[in-house]
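User: I'm writing a tutorial on reading structure tokens. Could you give me a worked example: one chain, its sequence, then its tokens, then a sentence or two explaining what the tokens reveal?
Assistant: Sure. Here is the example chain.
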Amino acid sequence: MISQKARYALRALLYLAARSDQGPVQISEIAERERIPRKFLEHILLELKKTGIVRSHRGRQGGYSLGRAAKDISFADVLRVTDGPLALSPCVSVMAYRKCDDCFEESICAIRKALLAARDATAEILESRNLATAAQQMRRSGAL
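And here are its predicted structure tokens:
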């Protein structure tokens, strides 16, 4: 399961994607509209800023905006920042590979093969979903 932190991050980013043509958005507005605790949202946005997914703007008209085009930010990008690797086991992780401590032989491990297939399928789906498409779908349905 994805964490509540990841859900909040995706909701905040979808809100920013929907408002991208209107300039930076203040944290208080995102928190209120998306029902996200403000302090938790501050922490999430700071983490996303470190990876370039969002950008902060100072001053009276300051706030947050997407750090790159919404079409270039996948759900996988966000989940990797908030929750870590997509893999269910370190032996199948692309970003954080580590041999399992109790593994006898990786090349013939049936568990690893199943988890590798799950990781590949999950990554394929999450990398193909981006903020622009999701925000557009939500606008059409009236959710944004």
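What the tokens reveal: The chain has a mean pLDDT of 92. Helices lie at 4-18, 27-34, 38-50, 75-83, 110-128, 131-141.
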